[in-house]
Amino acid sequence: MRCLVIGHLTHDIIVKDGRKTERIGGGAYYSSLALSKFCEVVVLTKIGKDFPIEWLEELESYGISTIIIPSEKSTTYELLYLDEENRQLKLLSKADPFTLDEIPQEKFDIILLNPVANEIPPNALELVKAKEVAVDIQGFIRDFKNGRVGLKEINGEFLKNAHVVHADVNEFQHVKNLNPDDLEVLLVSNGSESGVAYHKGEKYIYYPLKIDAKEPTGAGDVFLASFAYFYRECPFIQALKRANAFTAAFLERRTIDFPIAEAMEKTKFVKVEKVNTDEETSAR
């Protein structure tokens, strides 16, 4: 299986508990790591000459190929953690956005668009060719004022070209002209709290496993990527449970270096409930 991930790899400066660390990041990084457990992965990205070569070598060590389009700068974020789940983002520099003629026309089994700073044009979804197209909306709705990262409202009609869309609960409130019924799958996560998933118009509530996660960075990216793979391999509810179990295993270890079977053992502890929409409507 061949998978393409599109988005900026980032230089992340993480400030937590008074300590500062620097490392590779970005949705494309975490999503490609997750997919590398299951398929051949190619990452299309833009970085500057200042991007540490050892970070690219890390991707290579997992069998991940990169298509690098040179940029004057790399996308750099400062992530200031206020507590275990809440953070403030500041954009320090930004790589060039992708143009439509840079979007590959080659067909893949899965194409995952995971922007972090408005680098992917929305109409790119009309060009990509894959059996399954997955999108994380985080980088489409971010707004930047003096480097500070906020959220802006967007017209979500372009997302109808995707098969699977992920957002967190705060992000999805900023997406207009898009209903869950417009999509094959919509995943709306809420950190360690219960999330909502829609599949072909049916609504479900899922409950992430309770784990001792020291840091949540990349959780949504791993969740989306692993779900995109599992959804091709098994029915929706099983895919949702497996993606939650896989994400929990990643968060516990902060690495994907764990046996798949070990992560899948956690699947039986993931709870998913179907919501009766008739009862929900009558209760309002």
Task: Explain what the structure shows.
The protein has a single domain (2-282), classed as UDP-N-acetylmuramoyl-L-alanine:D-glutamate ligase (3-Layer(aba) Sandwich), CATH 3.40.1190. Helix content is 25%, strand content 36%. It has eight helices and 18 strands. It has helices at residues 27-35, 53-61, 138-141, 169-172, 219-233, 236-253, 260-264, 277-282, and strands spanning 2-6, 10-16, 19-25, 40-47, 65-70, 75-81, 87-93, 107-113, 129-136, 142-145, 148-151, 154-155, 164-168, 175-176, 185-190, 193-199, 202-207, 271-275. Strand 16 and strand 17 form a beta hairpin. The radius of gyration is 18 Å and the shape is globular. The mean pLDDT is 94. It comes from Thermococcus litoralis (strain ATCC 51850 / DSM 5473 / JCM 8560 / NS-C). Keywords: Kinase, Transferase. Residues 173-254 form the Carbohydrate kinase PfkB domain. This is Carbohydrate kinase.
Topology (elements, then pairings):
Layout (H helix, E strand, L loop, with lengths): L1 E5 L3 E7 L2 E7 L1 H9 L4 E8 L5 H9 L3 E6 L4 E7 L5 E7 L13 E7 L15 E8 L1 H4 E4 L2 E4 L2 E2 L8 E5 H4 L2 E2 L8 E6 L2 E7 L2 E6 L11 H15 L2 H18 L6 H5 L6 E5 L1 H6 L2
Strand content: 35-45%
The level 1 CATH classification is Alpha Beta
Shape: globular
Task: Examine the coordinates and then state which fold CATH places here, giving the name of the CATH topology.
Answer: UDP-N-acetylmuramoyl-L-alanine:D-glutamate ligase
Major beta sheet summary: 10 strands, mixed
Low-pLDDT segments:
none
At CATH level 2, the architecture is 3-Layer(aba) Sandwich
